[in-house]
Structure formats: structure tokens, C-alpha cells
Amino acid sequence: xxxxxxxxxxxxxxxxxxxxxxxxxxxxxxxxxxxxxxxxxxxxxxxxxxxxxxxxxxxxxxxxxxxxxxxxxxxxxxxxxxxxxxxxxxxxxxxxxxxxxxxxxxxxxxxxxxxxxxxxxxxxxxx
Length: 127
Prior knowledge:
Elements: H1 12-23, H2 27-39, H3 46-62, H4 75-80, H5 85-100, H6 103-108, H7 110-124
């Protein structure tokens, strides 16, 4: 039975991407996922959108603002990683695109999606 919930890490697609990330732990995997979301011209399917949200959540955690459902196995990486403003901007742009043009945002519904988008972007932004 698969996992499904309204949190960033409460679905199989996000958890599968996290497993791949942990196998190849590195900022390049995050950057590639975020750039892929931004550069994709079509409708973003749930698997890609979930992975993009998970990657963006790692950026928020690096900034010291993890989600309530942030995965314990990602904490060491997020506490030791360093990002610049360009990566922060990539994450914000990916989140905005996911919540405007994806199957995941439709599944979460408009009110939950808007609230989640604002929360995630605020946690990514530099103070």
C-alpha cells in the first residue's frame, strides 16, 4: 500500500526521490531536479512535482527552516550543506511552477496548495 498525504514527504513519489538522493547525496541532484522542473514546458506529473517539492524542502532545511514532516535521514546533509542565492531562487521558481501547473497541486486542492506554496517559499527565502 502506498503512502499519500498532504505533507511534502507524505507520498511515495517524494519518498522514492529521497531514497535516490540519499544514495547519491549531493547538491547536484537537487539542482538538476529543480532545473528540470523549471525548464519543463508541459504539465508536471505527480512524481516529478513531488520530487521537486522534496528537493525544495531540503533547500528550506538548509536555510534552517525544515517542514514538520522533514525526514530524519536528511538532517545531517541539510545541517552541513551550504547554498547560495542562485540555488534559493531555483527552489522558489520550481515551487511556484509546481503549484501553478502540476497534477500534485490539483490533488492537494487550491486552498491547501496556495497555503503550502506560501509556507514553503517563505521558508526558502533569505531573511
